[in-house]
Design a protein that fits this description.
With 367 residues, this protein is an alpha/beta fold. It contains eleven helices and eleven strands. Helix 4 links the parallel strand 5 and strand 6. Helix 1 crosses helix 6. The chain is globular and about 80 Å long.
Amino acid sequence: MQKALVVGGSGVTGIHIVNGLLARDYEVTVLNRGMHAAEFSRGVECLQANPYEKEALLPVLEGRTFDLAVIAYGRLRHVMKSLVGKTERIISVGGAAPVYKGWGEMMAANPWETTRPTPLFLSETHALATAETKDPFSMAVRFTETELFAAHQQGLFNITHFRYPLVYGPNNICPAEWGLIRRARDKRAPLILPDGGLAIVSRGYAENVAHAVLLAVDKPRESAGETYNVCDERLLYNHEWVSLVGEILQHRFEPVDIPFDCLPSGFRATPPQLLYRHHCVMDLSRLKKLGYRDVVSVEHALEKTVHWYMNNPLPAEGEVEQNLGDPFDYSYEDALLKLWHAHKNQFAEQLEQLPSVKVVWKHPYQH
């Protein structure tokens, strides 16, 4: 029986990765800090250590070897270095957003305000993946990717790396859907929808993302030395996301379209998923060549996610809810909406009074 180490394993995709390895008859060892309990399809060995500290990993890994290591948590380059001589095969996970310039500064107080227009369908080798940046977090993530593939070139490991999207699903540390779910539970209909929710952001359902990682498990030669973007094949505009979640909840939201330019800096009075000002969309061509297709449709994925959180609601004003950055300050939202409607109506009335050249249009072809 082959042996696999999964660093992480208890998060939104980790549980599916572990179960996928168990289904492939791996003997699995899970290493994490032991902060979150997880149930797997059968028993696994559990090691506790802080994967953000290299010194903490060496003692627990001493004398152990693995056929495969999946690094889905911790400081990636530290974990990689601690595995030299202990495995020949590493599949690693990192974020896509810090890599592509323009997709936001992740450590900023309001990352969404730091996004910039970027083309649709960015490939793994797009120029924005190496464009000069002064964002320390982006530089650190890129440096880690460079170190990974330097180790691959040196023959220390066979490495495959995945750039994760915004991941959604049950058991998520940062469930974007909760901003809509709680409003529905609170019987809240008005919803501020900046710029009409016309942004598209790469999101990936946990089972789909785990499926991509497991393709690399099954195809070590084909995926050797490759970086892969991963997200759902079918992406939604933010306004479609709101509508679909509302349908699942059987709740009618009343979206109010307000231009971003009319909202104050630091605005947070809506689910953060809706605060993206520009598209952030990855190209999946390389991953599809590996055989990727969504195993769960976006409709079914959102349905499973929403129902799970309806049955497992976040504690009001608890740590996870606060980390979402949505204050659920309905008094402020109502005051803002009242001000906006007054401004919009006044603006429209004043426009009607402006002198303008009247345009008479007719179709250029005779009918």
